[in-house]
Amino acid sequence: MKAKILLDGGTPKVPPVELKRVIQSAGIGVSEDKADFGIVVGGDGRFSRYGRTESIPLLFVGVRSKAPTGSRAYLAQTTFNELRVALKQIRKGVYSIDEHPRLAVLKNGRALGEVFTDVYLQRGGDSACIRYHVRITGKGVRIDEDAIGDGVVISTRAGSTGYYSYPDRIRGEWMDPTAFAKIGKNEIGVCHVNPTYTQRSGLSQHPLRYKVPWGCTIKLSLFRKADARVYGTTDGRAGVKIALKDEITIRRGKQATKIIVLGRTGEGH
Length: 269
Fold this sequence. Notes:
Shape: elongated
Distance between the termini: 12 Å
CATH topology of the largest domain: Tumour Suppressor Smad4
CATH superfamily of the largest domain: Probable inorganic polyphosphate/atp-NAD kinase, domain 2
Number of strands: 18
Radius of gyration: 20 Å
Low-confidence stretches: none
Number of domains: 2
Helix content: 10-25%
CATH class of the largest domain: Mainly Beta
Structural class: mainly beta
Mean pLDDT: 91
């Protein structure tokens, strides 16, 4: 059995040499091209990145941090200090594979990529806020919304602990970092970011956050010129610039992210 090492390309949380030593001490080889699974060490941002780019099963490994601004690593199955034990479980077959369908993101019909956790339309540095339209269609679903605010997050269940859950942390006592909303396996989460105004066609409601069935198609567009960008489909911090005439489509993708779940056996390995 061989593993592929997947770390932060800048300053990894664990030295590659140390990670390789732990993997090999558990009786597992290291390979770049012919790996049976990947080991991602980092925080939720790193998990999200490799979760949208890798096709092999992934083991998410967190690194404990006392820093209040450190990553919570909610998606981690184990920590680096316990990695050797976790790898021995994998060698024994004491794990299962959980498949997470990805969301495909398109700009004017051209693919930007697929996301594992979330994608969001947000204001850039040159706009105080953006004015945007959200249209959602699916079986028994039709939603038309206009909104003014920082933007909107579209999230899978894997992304529920991220930006989608900022209202829970604001409401929680001292912005509780462990508070997050649940998104079901067959749901997509939609959350407006710091909206000053939202309006849904045909209703008097002003929604902040809600869920729609998996399989719905979501279209985002601006209705006033602004510095707006789509984040989540690339590694770049600048995102993908969106103009007034552009339309972003988000729908079920063709790929799925395979996550290794420790402590239980099942199909898929």
